Each structure stands twice: as structure tokens, then as C-alpha cells.
Amino acid sequence: NSLANQECYDRMHEELASASRYVGEVGLDAIAYTCTTGSFYRGVGWDTEMCEVMSEASGVPAFATSPSMADALDEVGARKISVVTPYPEWNNVRLEAYLKAKGFEVLNLEGHPRTGSGEIRIPDQDPDEIFDFAVANCRPDADALLCSCTDWRALEVVERLEQRLGIPVVAANQATIWLVARELGVDTPLEGFGSLLREHVALVPA
Length: 206
What we know:
Layout: H1 2-13, H2 16-24, E1 31-33, H3 36-40, H4 46-58, E2 62-64, H5 65-75, E3 80-85, H6 89-101, E4 105-111, H7 113-116, H8 127-136, E5 144-147, H9 158-165, E6 169-171, H10 172-183, H11 195-199
Parallel strand pairs: 1-2, 3-4, 3-5, 5-6
């Protein structure tokens, strides 16, 4: 139920500062929070607040997946988007609200019925099944396709999806890697994981 879901994510964040402090002791250059739902379920504002908490506790720049996805969509010039997820309705409703608050027009947001119902675990879904689901649910007028959830193996089919759909595809893990790499000064294109990591890694000079 909704209350149980909310409590689950709230409990996960009770140790956010202490966990960040502990991890930061090993001499990191950056820290990233990679539970996508955990960074969008409280809406816009929480996504940046949690990064501030992590950065202050760890002493290094902090990143989270949901704002990384939004930044990546901005980077590729997307305004109208199709979204596919492995989530049940509780997560999907909150993701759609988050994306709209970030200024995107969500043409459609579809959760895969097999993962959303719990028939299979999210990381157990075959990437080919994700590919077929994404192709079937990407609107022809979308500027970009977003594949949410870091536990979902969408990163493995981003390149194929872009070739098939002819538009940029942003996936949760890909977007997080992109933003962290760019902010740390990595400027070497990464091949095989879509145009975001191939063409948009280096910071554009001011």
C-alpha cells in the first residue's frame, strides 16, 4: 500500500548523512545516490536537498539519479517525452509528477506489467524484453525516450533503441554516469551506450 511504500523509502533515507560520511572516508572524488525512486518520490526539491546532505556529510560533490535524468533530457533538447519503467503504479504516478514539475511534457508513461506486478524481479528482466516494450511504447512525436530505474537493464539496449527509434534515449544509469563523469572533467566519449555518453560528455565552454 501507499503508506508502506512511503515508509520504506523514508527509512532508507534515515541513514543518508551517516552513510555518506562513512563512504566519504575512503577518499572519493564524488558520491552518487542511485535509487531512482528514492530521489523523485518526494518531488522536486528533495532531489537537490538529498545531494546537499550527501555532499556536506562526505565532503565531495554528490549526485542523484532523478536530477541526472532531468539534466540529461535537457542536454539532448527534449521537451516532449515518452517514459517506460519497470515500476508499479505508486512509483509511476510520482515519477510523472516529478518530470512534469521539471518542465517536461510527458506524452505517456508506461510501466512494464511483468515487473510492475512482481511477476519477475526488475533486474531479472531480459534486455530484449525491455527493448521490445520500449519500442512499443515510444510515441512517434516524442523528442526523447526515458527509461527509468537503475535496477532495470535498459542501459544495455540504449544504443539499439536509438538506432531503431531515431531519437535520443536516456536511461537511469547512463544519465547518472554522464553527469558524474562530466562534472569530474571526464571528456572521453564512451561508445556503445547511446548518444548521451558518446556526444555529450565534455562540458561546453562557457
